[in-house]
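Ticket 4471: requesting a sanity check on a complex prediction with adenosine-5'-triphosphate. Repro inputs:
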Amino acid sequence: MRVNEKAPAKLNLSLDTPMRYFDGSPRWDMVMTSADLADYVTVETHRRPTTIKVYTDSGFLPNDQRNLAYQAAHILKSRFHCREGVTIHIRKNIPVAAGLGGGSSDAAAVLRALNRIWRLDLSLDELAKIALTIDSDVPYCVYSRLAHVTGHGEKIELLPAQPHYWAVIAKQQISVSTPQILRQINYEQLEHLDNERLIASLKAQDWQEAVKYMGNVLEPVTMSFYPEIKQLKDKMVSLGADVAQMSGTGPTVFAVCHTESRAKRIQNSISGFCRDVHVVTLL
Ligand code: ATP
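Returned structure tokens:
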């Protein structure tokens, strides 16, 4: 049987970390949403061979157990003793290692697809629990809609959908190592966000108020290595974005705009010095 799943990019409307756990991993406090920039994942099962195979159209990605989509298939296969083989084809549109959760979203898409193919009847909440064993963004990506995400990434409160908004997503030719950025966090120096007010504004569907409380406390950490990220962000603001900020640990910066024409104008103005630029709607 074969199933197609869309794997949307995630964006951090806010990213904060109030503390580290004893094992050194960050406790997250984030508001996340997804964009209509997506990878396309096709999952097929067969009786022979019984192995997992991953194919992508990207020359840079691993096809073995290092691929998060492979890990998702492996976990469901072993946990539910499914003997069938799994073939996964991923058409990548989400830039890799960009702070857009592409790998996590591919993994979540595989979980949703195999849940249907193998008729496991797991709820999204149950899939999200399994997803946490893959990576911290995978539970959110199981839902891929506006949510408040805390803990290691496993506590997810879904928030109401918002009015139609556009975003310009821009990734410079920089590779950011998430573990390296997380190791550099000095918790004493972080300027924490008011996520409670952000969430209250979103619950009231007051997007104009919400943009005032968006932010990413890791920007100074990543920007200390890559000052060009700040230049891009400042340019987007000067071009009229409602807000511009980094997603995840970067390097991607996104600008939120309340009209498509404004988003297109920003896209045109920055595409001269940043090649990977997309205008998207927020889900
Ligand atoms: P994170 O913030 O979780 O590190 P990211 O959003 O910055 O992730 P991804 O595109 O998910 O970036 O890639 C992060 C790493 O995961 C890359 O080093 C990549 O090799 C690896 N990876 C494994 N599987 C995938 C996949 N299916 N798609 C993209 N990257 C993958």
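Notes from triage: The radius of gyration is 19 Å. Leaving this open until the requester confirms.
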